[in-house]
# Entry
Amino acid sequence: MGEKIVLRYTDDPEQSDIATYIRKGGYQALARALKELSPEAVVDLVKRSGLRGRGGAGFPTGLKWSFIPKDPALPRYLCCNADEGEPGTFKDREIMEKDPHELIEGIILSSYAIGAHLAVIYIRGEFAYAARQLEKAIRQATAKGYLGRNILGSGYDLDVAVYRGAGAYICGEETALLESLEGYRGQPRLKPPFPATAGLYRKPTVINNVETLANVPYIVLNGPEAFAAIGTSRSPGTKVFCLSGHVKRPGNYELPMGTPLREIIFEHGGGVRDGKQLKAIIPGGPSTPTFTAAHLDVNMDFESVAAAGSMLGSGAVMVMDETACMVWAALRLTEFFRHESCGKCTPCREGTYWMVRLLGRIEAGQGQDGDIELLLDICDNMAGKCFCPFGDAAIAPVQGTVKHFREEYQGHIRRGGCWRHETTGGRLPTTDQGPRVTPGA
Amino acid sequence: MMLSERAREEIIKTAERFPERRTALLPALRLAQDEQGYLSSQVLVEVAAIFELTPAEVEAVASFYTMLKRRPTGKHLIQVCTNLPCALSGAGELLDHLKARLGIGVGETTPDGLFTLETVECLGSCGTAPVVQIDEDYHENLSAEAIEAVLARLAGG
# Structure
């Protein structure tokens, strides 16, 4: 299975307790850093590790930290982006629910590195259990002296707050997250200025994803070379791939960057359900263009996925078999984007609305000649013309499915409707895994 | 109904924790909703006064977030995820089953006021799809039998 980092201990039901976490080496990285390393040295370690952001963009983490102005008199903040909302993505939730101290330790180390004394975890409102696990971890860490004033006698102070969102996908966009944290509608800000110079409360701010921060204790404890030895040279480390859809064993799989898609789906996920044929794969969440069975040999790292015409994104691998209609799938995902468009800029607000109207009529059998071209024209009027990256993401389902499955769109228009209306043949869901409840309160 | 004294104290405590008080606005709205079930116009006026904002400024925030409700819901809020991974795992059929079973459409409440049915976008439970969130609890890997058992329990309690 190879080296695992962030999900290494998540099979242990006691892992969320601080005693278990410490017994397995937890908080040693923090003790070491506070005793032996200057904040700059921690930044340097993370830079040398080659760690890149796991939220989707893949920006080098250490470089991001180094943009924070050096003036120590200036307050600065760390925000942990735990607004996990990209459909198909459920990795940050698992880290927070099962190994919350790993994230807390990563946050303390990262805050120390940039000189922040307040860190805020912005967690999506629906994750009640994960928020409770984090609150508990913070209480335990504070009681042990890992948080609060004068941490481990080092003179360094840090307060970590859990801040629950209230249902808005766009708040995962870093400047929308900041707006939300300041008590406004979660609409993106114009960049520049970038958060590193004017972020939360217009002060220098670093915003990092949960999985990114959860890698930091490993890097500090084991050294950047150990981290860089995993994965590929330009995409080092592991990645949590969230496997969902028509596979036998959906779930989170932490594997080295660069693991082939085929291995993820067939070896780890057990292949396609019910002996069906693989039809389409969304490699990194709906913001990334669709792949087909012809892409199974693509290696899942930032460079290889980009070279194959899509993006690694959040690592949400959604699998669809031969029973899935691509127009239906594009409609479902575009409805999501329409629902979540914040309404600030016209191309996104109107574009997502009109794409849903067009996809809806094609799927319902009222498509007309020229509808496919019209859809692509809307995509063209959104690409690079929206206020924030959401607009570019929102066109991925249409662009990707038209590119690879244009004849399916044409078939809908020619025949006057969808060849299949139910993806499960009208059957109610049955799962072998048995029901599971995650209690909210 | 007025905000409780306990809620007011909690809001002020949160406001004082952050460099700018307004950061506590979203938590305040969540707290008000937890207490009253939804955000009435009256409670928005009360919250606005705490933050020295106009009711319109607070309404602008409240109307942006889908988890903040401006109308009362049933005693239990049933939210069916219909995003792609759940839809590939039978969420559409599960939703049809719930509509028939409860005799209501999406966005409606049963006449006895017990259940409100809604659809939601991705809840982050795609490896254990389909998922239905009832109040704050996630019900994952749901089958028809499992959802029946949950409904029976809620109707009995």
Notes: The CA atoms of residues 75 and 114 of chain B lie 5 Å apart.
